[in-house]
């Protein structure tokens, strides 16, 4: 245990592969994914407790109507003997992960410890959105795209993760120069396994830059009116771990002083209403572990500081935390099911407009709502902080594809990246000029 005390200081000097070499990668071969009908909250809680005895990964925490869960092959017999009301969503999760094409068990995890180490290459093209990519390639993509838009952008090192990876923001501005306007602010990949969020954030970014370069009237007006701050990966250690160790990893990779369980749920660690009971876990082994104190993770410390700066500078017009899955547009609050945001009507009107713009592309349904009543109680989340502390005029969590309805959950095939991204770009083309 004593060794762990030194790790934060060593981390920038060594590769993450060296840190996590003791952990064997998990392939999920033979795991089956089920949706269990829970028939209401009370029964849902009972079933959730029964399932805790299984070697399994639970996908959702809103268990009133159903629980989606991936069960290990050795516990499939035990699961069937529970005689639950279920359907099979995936016969072999390991095969789906291989088909998705971004997971390389035990692969190399070297990374740049400074943005200066990366040299710009060619300007990216749209083929980027037809595959998933490693953390290092995402870093390089940001460097390449920034280099192709030099007069109107910069890269900012927001901070470092626990293992020493860079949390990078791409800052874009229009004709008035930088820092002249309110912020449009996006976070992607806070939950490591939600890969589609990284790609959608980058697709929206790509559309803004390329359309501005083409003098598109709408986008020129948008970028001339706001400063964009775009962070496609706010949880780089967790994301890197999903590509080499565990595709279904959710948290960051912070070690605990007295537990062998790793990781804090960064979206339960923001220092606002953090201590409220019932919307996070105090157990380090839980997927929703809130951390030892409010904002104690390296990543959230850096993100809070950066967000405070944006709020103090020109204010935050709109914040979106991009997640998957369920196809929801969620307003605060997560900490309470009774409180509404002060500008509820305005935010809901905009969310309904985004949903209807998305629907026009290929009839995909996104449902607007509020986090606690419509998803589940979640405290220490980013949108509550942005709304009440950061004073963002719009503060949303968007849960991306799929809807859940028998589809792929976190493992969305690469062929679905572009269609999903185009849906959301239509939504942004409504939101950005309208808000
Ligand atoms: Zn999430």
Automatic annotation (TrEMBL):
The organism's place on the tree of life at top rank: Eukaryota
Cofactor(s) of this protein: Zn(2+)
Active site: 399 (proton donor/acceptor)
Database matches in InterPro entries: CARBOXYPEPT_ZN_2 (IPR057247), Peptidase_M14 (IPR000834)
Residue span(s) of domain Peptidase M14: 131-435
A Pfam family recorded for this sequence: Peptidase_M14
Sections of the chain in a coiled coil: none
Signal peptide positions (record): 1-16
One Gene Ontology molecular-function label: zinc ion binding
Gene Ontology process terms (BP): proteolysis
Annotated keywords: Carboxypeptidase, Disulfide bond, Hydrolase, Metal-binding, Metalloprotease, Protease, Secreted, Signal, Virulence, Zinc
GO CC field: extracellular region
Cellular compartment(s): Secreted
Family: Belongs to the peptidase M14 family.
Known role: Extracellular metalloprotease that contributes to pathogenicity.
Name used for this protein in its record: Carboxypeptidase M14A
Taxonomic classification: Eukaryota, Fungi, Dikarya, Ascomycota, Pezizomycotina
């Amino acid at each position: 245990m004593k060794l762990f005390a030194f790790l934060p200081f060593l981390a920038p000097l060594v590769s993450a592969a060296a840190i996590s070499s003791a952990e064997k990668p998990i392939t999920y071969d033979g795991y089956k994914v089920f949706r269990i009908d829970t028939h209401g909250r009370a029964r849902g809680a009972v079933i959730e407790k029964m399932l805790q005895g299984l070697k399994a990964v639970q996908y959702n925490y809103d268990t009133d109507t159903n629980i989606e869960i991936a069960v290990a092959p050795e516990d499939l017999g035990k699961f069937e003997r529970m005689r639950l009301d279920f359907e099979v969503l995936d016969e072999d999760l390991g095969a789906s992960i291989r088909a998705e094409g971004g997971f390389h068990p035990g692969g190399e995890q070297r990374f740049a410890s400074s943005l200066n180490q990366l040299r710009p290459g060619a300007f990216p093209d749209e083929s980027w959105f037809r595959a998933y990519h490693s953390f290092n390639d995402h870093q390089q993509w940001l460097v390449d795209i920034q280099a192709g838009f030099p007069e109107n952008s910069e890269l900012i090192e927001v901070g470092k993760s626990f293992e020493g990876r860079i949390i990078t923001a791409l800052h874009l501005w229009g004709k008035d120069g930088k820092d002249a306007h309110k912020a449009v602010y996006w976070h992607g990949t806070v939950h490591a396994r939600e890969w589609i969020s990284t790609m959608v954030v980058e697709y929206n970014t790509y559309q803004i830059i390329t359309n501005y370069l083409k003098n598109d009237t709408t986008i020129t007006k948008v970028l001339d009116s706001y400063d964009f701050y775009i962070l496609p990966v706010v949880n780089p250690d967790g994301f890197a771990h999903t590509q080499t160790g565990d595709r279904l990893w959710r948290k960051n990779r912070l070690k605990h002083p007295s537990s062998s369980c790793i990781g804090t749920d960064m979206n339960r660690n923001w220092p606002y209403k953090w201590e409220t009971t019932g919307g996070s876990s105090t157990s380090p082994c839980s997927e929703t572990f809130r951390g030892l104190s409010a904002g104690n993770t390296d990543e959230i410390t850096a993100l809070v500081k950066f967000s405070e700066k944006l709020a103090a500078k020109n204010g935050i017009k709109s914040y979106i935390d991009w997640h998957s899955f369920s196809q929801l547009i969620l307003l605060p609050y997560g900490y309470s099911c009774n409180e509404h945001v002060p500008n509820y009507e305005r935010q809901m009107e905009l969310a309904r407009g985004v949903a209807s713009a998305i629907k026009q592309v290929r009839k995909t349904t996104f449902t607007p709502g509020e986090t606690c009543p419509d998803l589940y109680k979640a405290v220490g989340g980013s949108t509550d902080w942005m709304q009440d502390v950061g004073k963002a005029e719009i503060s949303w969590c968007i849960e991306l594809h799929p809807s859940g309805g028998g589809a792929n959950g976190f493992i969305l095939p690469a062929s679905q990246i572009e269609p999903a991204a185009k849906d959301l770009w239509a939504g942004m083309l409504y939101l950005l000029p309208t808000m």
